[in-house]
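Quick one: NAD(P)/FAD-dependent oxidoreductase from Streptomyces evansiae, C-alpha cells please.
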Amino acid sequence: MTDTGTEAEQQTYDVVVVGAGPVGENAADRTRSAGLSTVIVESELVGGECSYWACMPSKALLRPVLAQADARRLPGLAQQVTWPLEAGPVLARRDSFTSHWKDGGQVEWLDSVDVPLVRGHGRLDGPKTVAVTTPEGTVERLTARHAVVLATGSRAKLPPLPGIDEAKPWTSREATSAQQVPGRLAIVGGGVVAVEMATAWRGLGAHVTLLVRGEGLLDRLEPFAGELLAKQLAEHGVDIRPGTSVAEVSRPGGTGTVSLTLGDGSTLEADEVLFATGRAPRSEDLGLETVDLEPGAWLESDDSCRVPGTDWLYSVGDLNHRALLTHQGKYQARVAGTAIAARAKGETVDTAPWSPAQTTADHAAVPQVVFTDPEIAAVGLTLAEAEAAGHRVRAVDQEIGSVAGAALYADGYTGRARLIVDEDHGFLRGATFVGPGVSELLHSATIAIAGEVPLARLWHAVPSYPTISEVWLRLLEAYRDGS
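--- reply ---
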C-alpha cells in the first residue's frame, strides 16, 4: 500500500487528505474505496468542527428546547412542562454526543477503512507534497502520486474591536461547549449561529440579548423567515435590538462582567458575550504560497472540486466557500473522491451538470435547516436571488397552519411556505418552509429542485393526510388558481 523512502519521515501515497473532519473523512473513504492508498492528516480532533463544536453539540442543545416548545402547544402536556429546562441533563447529553471531546471512536473508524492517520499540522511544501509537524516536533513529509485534498474548513471570525482580545469572548466553539448557563448572554450577530444559540441558551434559562447590525434576522433567506423567527424569539423573552453595532468591548483580565459599548454610546453588561459575526477560511498557514496560491484566502474549486490551474490539488467543504454546510461539504468530498479515482485511472471526467458519474458538484439545490422555534428549512434560490439571476419566476405562498396536519401537530400552529416557480421551464427554483417540524419537508423540495421535476408531475406526488406535508398540495393549488 505505502512506499516508504529511506527516511522514516518520508512516505508516498496515492492521495493525501489534510483535515479529518466529516468532509476529509468522506474524501478519504471515497478514494480508499476506489483502491487508492490514502492518508489523512489532522491537527486537532478527528471528526472536526461538526462533531465537537458545531452540528452535533448545537443540535443536542437545541433538541430539548424545541421538544419543550412543541409540548407547550399541546393540551395535556403543556401543564406538565416546566421552564427553563433543567440544564444538567441537557448539557450531559450534549457531552455524550461529542464523546466528551475525545476522538477514539473516529480513529477506530479510520482504522476500519484502512486509512492511516498522521497527527499534526499539515501544510503544502510544493506540488503534491505535505509537510506535517507532529506534536513531538518532528516533520513527516507525505507525497501524493495523484492528489492532495484540502479539507481544513473554517473558523469563527472576530471583528477588530478595541478590547476584544482581552475580553475573551465566546465564539461558536465556546457557545456549544460551555459547561454552565450564563445569567446574561449577549449575542452579536443575526445569522444562523446567533439565532440558534439564542434559542438554546434562552431555553436553558439565560437572559439573552441579540445585537443585530442589520434590520432583520437571517437576511440571506426569504424575509418572512426572519420576521416569524424574531416574533417567536421575542415571545420567548429574547431582547432583540436591530440596527445595533458594537464599538468596544471591556473585560479587564478576561474574567467577570463584560461591558459592551454600543454604536449609540450606550452600554450593555453581560456575563458572557458571543460574537457570531462570520467565518474565515483555515488557510493562513496551509503552505499555499509554495504552490503560488494566496494564503489566508478562500480556495476556489471547479465543479469537480479541483483547484483551477492545478491537476492535483482539490479544495472541499468550507474552504472553497461554496456552501458552509457539513452536508454540502460531504457531498463535495464524495464528488472529489470519485473524480480523483477516475483521473488516476486515466478516465475522462464528466463535468456536465448532474453528472451520472457523480463527478460534478451541483449548487442549484443546496438545502439548509435553521433549528430554531419555529424551524426554518430552505433549498435553492430565494425570490430575490432568482430575479437577480434573470429567471422569470413566480412566488407562491401558503400559510402552513391552514392544513389539518399542522393543526394536529400543535395548537395555534403558525408557519408559512413559499415555492419559487420558474415560469419558463415549469419547475421549482427554490422553496422555503417556516414552522414547527418543517425540517422534514425539506428533502422532498430538494429532490424536486435537483430533479427539475415538472409541476405537472408534482401533482401526482400525493401527500399523506393528515400531515404537514399536505402544504405541498395547497401550494400547487395556489399556483394553479393564480393566488
